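Please describe our next protein:
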Amino acid sequence: MTEAASESRSQSASGDTDRHFRQFDSHDRASARGHLTRTFAIDNTAIRKGFLVAGLGGTGTCLALIGIHQAAAVPLLILSGVTTGLSGPMVFTIGQSLAGPRAGGRWMGIQNMIGNFSGILAPIVTGIVVDWTGSFTGAFLLAGAMSVIGTASWLLVVRDVREVAWRSVDASRKAPAL
């Protein structure tokens, strides 16, 4: 191939590449969310809740299946970790979207505090269930059921993922400092 033909070919390829990347000039357009909203007319609520429901539902299913088929526990725990990865980021994204910039820190602090209670209660409840039943089957089934309840809560309680309209607090009505 001659040098001129090679140079012409590389300019054509780079021109195509430049034209392709110009289509994705903003972060929103280049993101998966931007692609889904443009291509399938899906809004943010459907995308975020979809990931959350898929993740929580997958985790609950895996945990319940472990209770039924203990021989498949290792692959199901791995799959449960993968599905947890789908829902975990959405819990924080949706919480921050609902709270908005004015209350995001407080909202997420309270959400994390309540969420951390599961780290205290889960071992206690698991121990009680194992003591009563003599096996971990009931504990895994209970964990799967809790995940299903969480999925239903996200579907039924949280309607739209958009900032809550907070009421303004008058400066004269603020609580006195301690």
Q: What stands out?
A: The mean pLDDT is 79. The longest helix spans residues 73-133. Residues 36-160 form one domain. The chain has one domain: 36-160.
